[in-house]
């Protein structure tokens, strides 16, 4: 976390608003954030450090298999989720167990990937984080962030060569010169008290509340960029599906 803080300080300016209520600290807690860039996990770690929180991420299995990074992920007790494999469903149980075994919160990206929404608003998202919260009976803190997408380009889906790494690294070096402002907002806990893990439709309802809370927190962070980001990333693909969480 100390190294991460130095990297983010070198990259740009970090602005943090909101906090985690004192009565939710030291107990099982899920944090759900929008996913906008390759560097935003480091931005979130730095923001959490400023708020005296040590989050554990639910991360793709490839990170755990990588040299150096994999050792760090395992030592930090982060939670592995293998995409596209039969074991993917095990992530829910792993998170529930992780919440009960450690007082540090678990941070999840409900969208499951970097957003490809045309204007970089949150995508519909999956019900995984909602099912985790309902199964564990734990509060959910929505986290909204903006600006991390300027710190490193999207690049490619899978890094397979030194050239692929250079595309990412060189975009970060350009950001060091520009010094973008990276904003993170910790929202109020999402009320899921009337929902149950075993009731049909409640996981989708919980997902909707979480995604709306993230979107509402994001609006003031990008007040000067309501329609589309001013920063253009030519490597980033987009879908034709607009965010369902905005009033249009």
Automatic annotation (TrEMBL):
Pfam families: Acyltransferase. Signal peptide: none annotated. It comes from the Bacteria. Residues 225-239 have a biased composition (Basic and acidic residues). CDD domains: LPLAT_AGPAT-like. GO terms for cellular component: plasma membrane. Keywords: Acyltransferase, Transferase. Residues 29-148 form the Phospholipid/glycerol acyltransferase domain. One of its GO terms (biological process) is phosphatidic acid biosynthetic process. Residues 225-248 are annotated as: Disordered. One of its GO terms (molecular function) is 1-acylglycerol-3-phosphate O-acyltransferase activity. This is 1-acyl-sn-glycerol-3-phosphate acyltransferase.
